Amino acid sequence: MSDYDFDLFTIGAGSGGVRASRVSAAHGAKVAIAEEHRVGGTCVIRGCVPKKMLVYGAHFAEDLDDCARFGWEIGEKRFDWPTLRDNVLADVDRLNDAYTDTLESHGVEIFHERAEITGPHEITLASGKVVTAKYILIATGARPRLPTCQGAEHGITSNEAFHLDKLPKRIIIAGGGYIANEFAGIFNEFGCKVTLVNRGDQLLRGYDEAVRDRLLQISMTKGIEFKFNTIFENVEPCEDGGFLVKMSDNEEERVDQVMWAVGRVPNTEGLGLENAGIELGENGAIAVDRFSKTNVDHIYAVGDVTDRIQLTPVAIREGQAFADTVFGDGEPVAVEHDCVPSAVFSHPPIASVGMTEGQAKNALGSVKVYLSDFRPMKNVLAGRNERSLMKMICESDNGRIVGIHMIAPEAPEMMQAAAIAVKAGLTKADFDATVAIHPTMAEELVLMR
C-alpha cells in the first residue's frame, strides 16, 4: 500500500495538466486532478481553439467579396455575431466534455474545485478535503495581464471577447503581440472600427522584421489604425454608453469597447507555493529544470505557469515528458525548447520557425537570405493587391537553414512541414532538390533563389 492517497496530484486541467495526468495514469499511476474552472484550460475554453473559430468566421468577409470574380452571385451579405458566438461556445462545451471523458476513461479522479499545497506532499481542496500525493504537478497556466492605468477595470481581455452581447462599432485594443493583432484582424473583418495602441514602437517583437512590416502595411490597407509609443492614462465610462479613453499623446477617443492584450501572467497566487518553499522567477513564474522539476524534489510544473514558451503544444510536450520521466520505464525525457514553430492568426497569418535574420547575424555572423515576394494566384483573380512574403535564412558556409518566416494565406499550414526540415538541419540544397507542387504557394519554399 502506498503511503499517499495518490501517486500524482495535478493542479490545473489545461492542455499540459490533462496530458500529464492521462499519460501518468496510463503508466499505472493513481492520479487525481483539480480544476476550479472548466476542464480544457485556456486553449480549449478561452484561447486558441475558440479564437481560431472566430478567425475562420472572419475570413468569410473577404471571401464573400472575392467570390464574384470567381463567378459566384450572392445576395447582400450580413453578419450575425450571436450566431457565431453561440456556435463557438457550444463547441467549447463539447470539447470540455471530451477532455473530461478522456480523464475519466483513464481512471483519473477529477476534483472540480480549487486546490492549494498546504504541506509536504499535502493538498487541501476548497471543500476542506485534505489529500496526499507522492508527486505534485502544477499546471495552472496564465491569465491576461491588466495595465495599471486608471479605469483599467472597464476594459475586457481575450477571456471576455468570446462572450460579448454585441460587437462594438469602435474598439481600441492595447498591445502589440499576437493576441492583439489576431483580435484586431477579427474585429476589423466583422465590421468594427479598430485602433491598435502599442506602448512600444513595433509589432510582434521577436518575429522577423520583414514579416512584421508586411503585416503592418496590409493591416493599415484593411483599415486598422495604429498608435505607437502611446500608453493609456485613463478609461472613463460615458453616461450614454461607451468609454472616453485618454492617452499619453494627449488625444481622447470615444469608443464602445476597450480590450487589453498586453501580455499574460503566470497563475501562481493562492497555490500555497510559499508553504512548499517553491522558488519563483522574476516574473512570478515557477522556476524549473529541464525536466520540469522545481527546487522541491517531489513538485513539478509544466506549461504557461513556468513561462518558458507559452504555447499549447509546448505545454502538452512538457506534460508528456513529465509523465514518461516520473512514471515511465525509460530514460528521463526533457523537452527541447529551441526551434519551436509558431503562428499568428492575423489577416493574413504569419508563421515562423528558427532564427530571424537579425538573430542569425548576431549568432552566426555571415548568413544568406532568400526571399520570395509574390501575389497569390487567388488574390490576382480576385483583384486583391495583397502580397505574400516568404523568407529563408541560411548559414553561409554550409547552407543549413536556420530560420523560415512567412506571411501568406495558410502560412501556418505550410510552416508545420517546413519546421520539420529546419529542426532536422536540412540545407537550402535539400529544398532546391525537391520538386515543386504547382501551382501552390508552398512551392515558393523550394524555388527561392
Which keywords apply here?
23% strand, alpha/beta, Enolase-like, domain 1, single chain, 3 domains, 449 residues, FAD/NAD(P)-binding domain, 13 helices, globular
SSE inventory with pairings:
Layout: E1 6-11, H1 15-26, E2 31-34, H2 41-46, H3 48-66, H4 81-105, E3 109-111, E4 115-119, E5 122-125, E6 130-138, E7 142-144, H5 158-161, E8 170-174, H6 178-189, E9 193-197, H7 209-221, E10 225-227, E11 232-237, E12 243-247, E13 252-255, E14 257-260, E15 264-266, H8 273-276, E16 299-301, H9 312-327, E17 342-344, E18 350-354, H10 357-364, E19 367-374, H11 377-382, E20 388-395, E21 401-407, H12 411-423, H13 428-432
Parallel strand pairs: 1-2, 1-6, 2-3, 6-16, 8-9, 8-14, 9-10
Antiparallel strand pairs: 4-5, 5-6, 7-15, 11-12, 12-13, 17-18, 18-21, 19-20, 20-21
Mean of all residue-level pLDDT scores? 96
Low-confidence stretches: none
CATH class of the largest domain: Alpha Beta
- State the helix count: 13
